[in-house]
TrEMBL record, chain B:
Regions that span the bilayer: none
PANTHER family found in the cross-reference section: HEMIN IMPORT ATP-BINDING PROTEIN HMUV
Keywords recorded for this protein, A-Z: ATP-binding, Nucleotide-binding, Translocase, Transport
Protein's UniProt keywords contain Protein biosynthesis: no
Phylogenetic lineage: Bacteria, Bacillati, Actinomycetota, Actinomycetes, Kitasatosporales
Stated name of the protein: Heme ABC transporter ATP-binding protein
A GO term for molecular function: ATP binding
Keyword Translocase applies: yes
Highest taxon listed in the record's lineage: Bacteria
Organism of this sequence: Streptomyces bohaiensis
Pfam families: ABC_tran
Domain ABC transporter: 29-262
Length: 374, 283
């Protein structure tokens, strides 16, 4: 059958070029994303302050908002007034260390997740999923079980950092080929690393005595209970160092999204960037794992939500993930200790309960977009 | 590695900065007797080629002839095993990644992106090498011009991942144009494009060459090379089989031998530009 003459003769209008603005006029900037990032930052900061106040005030011993503010102002030398002895003690020895610890751990986890996804060029990378948290946990458990005290307060953190660093390097070496990380390789490497780390943790537990056993078990569930200023001090250097260093690499992480070679063509020393970021990720993960055990999915969920709203630019994503991570963990910890009061839910269990379904959804979506696993 | 090198690596080499201006005819990049092996297979075997300011140089040849490898060697991506690659007068390994990025831009064969950046953000990435230099204030202007040149301005606010293959290829080219380097190394920029956009891309190449830049472009369409390039280099089995102006180089004899298929070359009735056709049995 031959095509009808009319269709054959009809001019193809599709090839007409769309009118182009004259070169020299600045292109339409992605205003919406920038504006959203700005609004989001303000919103998250406000929410963080409110949640921190709530976390300091709510509990078995209620301290009204006003009293919290007054006491903090008093200690900071900005007026205010001290509270009675019990309230003062609850606030400063129980609530506030816990709030600060939640902030540090959450910020570290969120930021580590954003960095890791950037380095691997893969939105499913996360310290918990690919086994870096478990790797760091091996060091921490070993330190507890064998009663190490080489570095005083910092022993558990240092051990977590060393074994976490070794794990990131291992995963990195195993899961990359030809400058890319395939999703399937990454996840399977995570399965293997998690299994191996689990075995090592089991071995350490086998050698531990009863008191150490209890300590390990509670630590493993991922909890911020028994937060003290000493614990805050133990993770502060790692977390702060990592959080300060991270935004430094944001622009280069953007370029890395193009692939390793194009990033190099644009002036990025990819090898050095990679090593630096692996170090930062290990620092952040160690800080989080050393005090709070394995808290999964925060590093996965947080950068994803932000990317959906404000785009994938790392200049917002990296600090934004730290902020939202802190907020999420603070809120989760508040929920963990109030939902079943007077009992306390393990924080790691709570985040996994909420995070796992999200991970399922993410897997489904990634698979659908790619049309299967490469 | 010496202590110096270790320290420069750790601190980050501030490097030589933007290149000095060049004139038409200057040699901006050069391969001298370059030999390169992947495994046991020699991919480049004593290849010499100069890249001059103000001209479009087309690399043609059959699959596996070493075109992309030669381009990668000129880009300082792949270290060579024999011979030297000079970029802006210095050996390739003399330059830091940053210095190289101010001197040459590279369009890879396939455009990939890990996260859903917007088209305009992708093109803007091409400006990264100029951050902190005097040229930084031109960013908006250069990005707009690069997008207009490849006709992707209309896609600016869309995510890169939502584009078709040909559109992605043009956005990638736009990013490379925005880098504003004196040397452009383009690996099959026309592969995914329709007829109109193939012509557009080669016209952009000529435009840049007329402005004094050097453009090296790998193409499979010999007619396209003949029509737009100032010089062609025919590669076969890792060697240069012929090099020179298209009309003198793209001869039926050479092409038939190189492609191992009978080829005829006709002159265009109006312009005289060579038209290259494989000889096909009558039907």
């Amino acid at each position: 059958m031959s095509p009808s003459p009319t269709t054959a003769a009809a001019p193809r209008t599709r090839t007409a070029p769309t009118p182009q603005p004259a070169p020299g006029t600045p292109p339409v900037r992605h205003r919406t994303r920038a504006a959203r990032a700005c609004a989001l930052t303000v919103g998250m900061l406000a929410a963080l302050v409110v949640t921190a106040l709530a976390a300091a005030s709510i509990g078995a011993y209620q301290i009204p908002f006003g009293d919290v503010l007054a006491s903090v102002a008093h200690r900071a030398g900005l007026g205010g007034h001290p509270l009675d002895r019990v309230a003062e003690s609850v606030l400063w020895n129980v609530r506030l260390p816990r709030v600060v610890l939640a902030l540090l751990v959450g910020a570290s986890l969120g930021c580590a997740g954003a960095l890791m996804q950037g380095v691997f060029g893969n939105p499913l990378a996360e310290p918990g999923v690919i086994g870096v948290s478990a790797g760091a946990a091996v060091g921490a458990v070993a330190a507890i079980a064998f009663g190490l005290s080489l570095f005083g307060t910092w022993t558990v953190t240092v051990c977590a950092f060393v074994s976490g660093l070794a794990t990131v390097l291992l995963v990195y070496a195993l899961s990359r080929s030809g400058g890319r990380t395939e999703v399937i390789t990454l996840i399977l490497t995570g399965v293997a690393v998690n299994a191996f780390a689990g075995a090592l943790i089991g071995l350490s537990i086998f050698f531990a005595d009863n008191a150490q056993l209890t300590e390990i078990t509670f630590w493993q569930l991922g909890s911020l209970a028994q937060a003290t200023w000493t614990k805050v001090l133990a993770v502060l250097p790692c977390a702060v160092l990592g959080l300060i260093a991270a935004p430094w690499y944001a622009r280069r992480l953007d370029l890395l999204a193009l692939g390793e070679k194009p990033a190099r063509h644009l002036g990025v020393d990819v090898e050095r960037l990679r090593i630096a970021l692996v170090l930062v990720v290990a620092l952040l993960t160690a800080a989080a794992v050393a005090v709070a055990g394995i808290i999964t999915f925060v590093g996965l969920l947080v950068p994803h939500l932000l990317r959906m709203v404000a785009g994938p630019g790392h200049r917002f994503l990296v600090p934004g993930s730290a902020l939202l991570g802190a907020l999420v963990l603070l809120a989760a910890d508040l929920a963990a200790r109030t939902l079943a009061a007077p009992a306390e839910l393990p924080l790691g269990v709570l985040t996994a309960l909420i995070g796992s379904p999200f991970f399922f959804w993410l897997l489904r979506r990634t698979r659908r977009r790619q049309g299967g696993w490469a | 590695m010496t202590i110096d090198q270790v320290i420069t690596r750790l601190l980050g080499n501030r490097g030589a900065g933007p290149p000095a201006p060049h004139r038409t005819g200057d040699v901006l990049a050069e391969a001298r007797q370059v030999t390169l092996r992947l495994g046991d297979r020699p991919v480049l075997d004593g290849v010499s080629l100069t890249v001059r300011a103000g001209e479009v140089l087309a690399l043609v040849g059959p699959n596996g002839a070493g075109k992309s490898t030669l381009l990668a060697a000129l880009a300082a991506d792949t270290p060579v095993q024999g011979g030297t690659v000079l970029i802006d007068g210095e050996p390739a390994d003399f330059w830091s990644a940053r210095d190289l990025s101010l001197r040459r831009a590279v369009l890879p064969q396939a455009a990939a992106l890990s996260f859903p950046f917007l088209v305009e953000e992708v093109v803007r990435m091409g400006r990264a090498p100029w951050a902190g230099t005097a040229a930084e204030h031109e960013d908006d202007e250069v990005v707009a011009a690069a997008m207009a040149a490849t006709e992707v301005t209309a896609f600016a606010p869309r995510p890169f991942s939502a584009l078709s293959g040909g559109e992605k290829a043009r956005v990638a080219l736009s990013r490379v144009l925005a880098q504003r380097t004196a040397v452009l190394l383009l690996d099959e920029p026309t592969a995914a494009l329709d007829l109109r956009h193939q012509e557009l891309v080669l016209a952009v190449c000529r435009e840049r060459a007329r402005g004094g830049d050097a453009v090296v472009v790998v193409v499979h369409d010999l007619g396209l090379a003949a029509a737009h390039a100032d010089r062609v280099a025919v590669l076969a089995d890792g060697r240069i089989a012929g090099e020179g102006p298209p009309a003198a180089t793209l001869t039926p004899e050479l092409l038939s031998e190189v492609y191992q298929h009978p080829v005829e070359v006709l002159g265009h009735p109006d312009t005289g530009v060579p038209i290259v056709l494989p000889r096909r049995p009558a039907r």
